[in-house]
Recover the amino acids of this structure.
């Protein structure tokens, strides 16, 4: 038995409280069941304490585990390896991302809580601030294809002086990423390229949720409401496909998309650095071939209902629509920008008089 001086004051006070309660039970002032209730332990554990008290007296009530190494203690060599990996290779990863790397690439099976507390205790990562109360999150759509989010995030994705836009299309029901590519700038052409790939691969969806960028909406007054009657090229193309467009009036309204971009910004630059990818072509190839699938495995959720709401679309219809956008050009005349746009109706395989019926038969 260890010396009494080795125990902290709190442990001593706890043992004295247990002794007082047990003495009352021995004097039959209370029952042993009531004593167990007062101490917050089970009847069985109360009997064990009673036996130890009879055999060893007051010392038998002290915690025998104190001062002994835990059987679940992480080996010192493993701790040093974890710290070395974070300092030398994964210094810019967040704790969750680093924990996944330890398991996937180094075979180190440790709990997330242990890794976080160890890094914080070593001063390698700071303690996160406590989250405040958030707005009530909108319920997800029940089926994939009912609502898609599209947005672009301008960021230093290569961790240097270069800024690029990451255009992402994700499903509201599952958070599955259907499209993610880095471009010089978010524009009508780059947005249409993303939508074209999603529609050709998955089908026509029901609604598209976006910000009020000029390639999605026309806003007569800056920061004001959108004009639903004056459509952009993206708006006209989606309108002909029967897709509803929904504008967002604040970043908070696009919370699901904004949180998704926060995850992208906290992971993609580090992945590009670890793989030594420094060009748009290499980064986009990595996104298409590897990272989108890995991202979906980590963050995709199951839909509330089976099935999906995508409708097949004839490829020639969408190809003609997207080609009309590529023909759009601007020229400067007398210090004014004038747009020369071909008629979208004339270059699509449906006539104005039969637009509604043909569009329905296409779906």
């Amino acid at each position: 038995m260890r010396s009494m001086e080795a125990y902290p004051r709190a442990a001593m006070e706890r043992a004295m409280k247990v002794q007082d309660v047990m003495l009352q039970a021995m004097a039959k002032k209370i029952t042993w069941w009531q004593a167990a209730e007062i101490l917050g332990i089970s009847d069985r554990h109360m009997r064990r304490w009673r036996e130890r008290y009879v055999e060893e007296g007051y010392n038998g009530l002290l915690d025998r585990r104190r001062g002994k190494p835990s059987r679940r203690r992480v080996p010192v060599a493993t701790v040093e390896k974890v710290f070395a990996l974070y300092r030398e290779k994964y210094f810019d990863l967040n704790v969750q991302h680093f924990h996944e790397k330890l398991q996937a690439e180094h075979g180190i099976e440790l709990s997330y809580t242990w890794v976080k507390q160890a890094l914080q205790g070593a001063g390698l990562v700071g303690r996160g601030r406590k989250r405040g109360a958030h707005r009530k999150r909108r319920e997800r759509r029940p089926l994939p294809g009912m609502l898609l989010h599209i947005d672009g995030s301008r960021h230093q994705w290569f961790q240097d002086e270069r800024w690029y836009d990451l255009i992402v299309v994700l499903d509201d029901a599952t958070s599955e990423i259907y499209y993610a590519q880095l471009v010089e700038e978010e524009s009508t052409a780059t947005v249409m390229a993303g939508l074209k790939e999603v529609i050709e691969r998955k089908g026509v969806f029901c609604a598209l949720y976006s910000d009020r960028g000029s390639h999605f909406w026309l806003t007569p007054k800056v920061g004001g409401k959108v004009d639903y009657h004056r459509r952009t090229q993206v708006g006209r193309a989606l309108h002909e496909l029967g897709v509803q467009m929904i504008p967002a009036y604040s970043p908070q309204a696009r919370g699901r998309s904004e949180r998704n971009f926060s995850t992208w910004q906290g992971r993609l630059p580090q992945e590009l650095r670890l793989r030594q990818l420094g060009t748009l072509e290499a980064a986009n190839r990595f996104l298409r071939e590897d990272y989108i699938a890995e991202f979906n495995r980590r963050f995709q959720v199951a839909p509330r209902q089976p099935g999906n709401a995508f409708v097949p679309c004839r490829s020639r219809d969408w190809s003609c629509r997207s080609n009309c956008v590529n023909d759009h050009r601007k020229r400067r005349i007398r210090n004014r920008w004038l747009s020369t746009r071909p008629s979208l109706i004339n270059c699509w395989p449906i006539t104005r008089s039969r637009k509604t019926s043909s569009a329905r038969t296409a779906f």
